[in-house]
Amino acid sequence: MRVEVYLVDSCADVTLGTRPVPALGTADVLRGDGVGAFGIAFDDGDYGLYGLAQDADCAVVAAGCDEVAITAAQETLTVTLGAVRGEGCPVDELCSLETGDCVDGTGGTGGSGGGGGRVDDGLILFYAFDEGSGSTVTDRSDVLPRLDLTIADPGNVTWSSEHLSIDTATALSTTGGAAKVVARAQASGELTVEAWITPANATQSGPARIVSMSTDPWVRNFMLGQEAGTYAARFRAEGQADWDNGSPTIFTTADTATVALTHVVHTHSASGDEVIYVDGVENETFTRTGGLSQWDATYPIVVANEGTNDRAWLGELHLIAVYDRALGAAEVEQNFTAGP
């Protein structure tokens, strides 16, 4: 049994079946070990404690929100879950982590996780970096299986309530390959990679990896990175020179990568047209011919580095999202307006 627990201002802030975003604090409980303290200091007062319980038969078996009181002496918090879901799913189906409904093995059409006026259609990966503590960053998209990130060196990062700061080189990566990304991208021939980030400096290079689906610096399916004062994108399409590394690399114009909070989006359409947007505005275009049949489903998602730990990126991570289609200019602007 696994229980996800979210501390919120009050139960009025949550909707049954949907993870509260943002939450004041989160905790995971495995194998019925009991709910421990969040490891974060909270002011005395009344709060809401929301939980989702999952088991091997159906991911969400119960969900509910209890009012709890926190005092200076409080060491543990308890929650009684309601809306019990006892049914299991057929072997060829998965259970939605958001609703408890059985869905086909592809995990549905995407969506959720975004909120706040963001585009949901086609969303297949979503990291908000608002967990506040711990060594896991949760994939909050609706498309199963979830591809959570594990921080290799938790001591090299600093959590805030709304972002994760990479202070010293480390890597955040999925366990195993991101097969759902490959399946969706190959079906549509399209992909969008989006990031809200604040670089630590305008000199890191390699390109320094913001997010990549790869195993090392030389082979990948896609990459969004930083090369000194520019942003860089790679995308695997057979037929290009050095295609298995996602070459050629396309770059934004000079001095677009600064030490300010920035919205960067790279889109690839089925026609081969690519666009990099910076802060909601088209910055660079490119046409990349070739299909996606050679994409490798065994490659993991790696954030802030390569798996070989030699392309480190430093700075603040506010949001990373991946869509199984090329967002249009108006949709990119919509996500920029919504903010991280």
Overview of the structural elements:
6% of the residues lie in helices and 36% in strands. It is mainly beta and 340 residues long. The protein has two domains: 2-104, no CATH class; 123-338, Sandwich (Jelly Rolls), CATH 2.60.120. Strands 7, 10, 11, 13, 18, 19, 20 and 22 form an eight-stranded antiparallel β-sheet that branches. Strands 8-9-12-21-14-15-16-17 form an eight-stranded antiparallel β-sheet, with no helix packed on it. Strand 19 (273-278) and strand 20 (281-287) form a beta hairpin. It is globular and about 60 Å long. It starts with a strand and ends with a helix. Residues 30-37 have low confidence and may be disordered.
Key attributes of the depicted protein:
Jelly Rolls, 36% strand, eight-stranded antiparallel sheet, mainly beta, 2 helices, 340 residues
